[in-house]
Amino acid sequence: MIWKTLLIVAVFAVATDVAVMALKMVGGYSDATVTDTGVQDALRYAVVRHNAGTNDMYLRQVGRVISVQKQVVSGVNYKFVVEMGQTACRKTGVESNCPVRGDEAAAKPYQCTFVVYKHWSGTVSLTSQTCPTV
C-alpha cells in the first residue's frame, strides 16, 4: 500500500516538473543578464536607433536597465525595459564618453521598452520601441 502511494506521489512530481519545464521552453521570454555580449550589442543597437529617431539635439543613453529578457526564435529577440536620460553630448559631436547627466532635471529621464531581433544570419533590427515622444 505504501509503495502505491509513493509511486503516485513520484509520478505526480515528475509530471508537474515536466509541465513547468515545457511552459518555460516553448517560445517564451526568459530573463537574461546585462553582462552577456549579445545583450550588450543589442542594447547598443537599440540606443543608436532610438537616438536616430529623436528630434533632440543631445544624445540619450541608458541610465538604468530595469529588465532584460531574450527569446530564441529563428534568431534571438532581446527585450529591454530601460530608463533613458539626456547626456551633455550633442548628436553631431564626436565624444565617445557620454554618460547621462547627473542632475535628474537635466537628464529628463523616461522609460522605454525596446525589442531587438538578431536573425541567425547576423542581420539586426529594432522591431519595437515604446517610449514617450522626445
UniProtKB/TrEMBL annotation:
Coiled coil feature spans: none
Q: What's one Pfam family the UniProt record gives for this protein?
A: Cystatin
PROSITE patterns xrefs: CYSTATIN
Q: Locate the Cystatin domain: which residues?
A: 24-132
The GO cellular component terms are: cytoplasm; extracellular space; vesicle
Q: Which UniProt keywords apply?
A: Disulfide bond, Signal
For this protein, the record's Gene3D superfamilies field holds: 3.10.450.10
State the SMART domains in the record: CY
As one GO molecular function, the record gives:
cysteine-type endopeptidase inhibitor activity
Name by which UniProt lists this protein: Cystatin-like
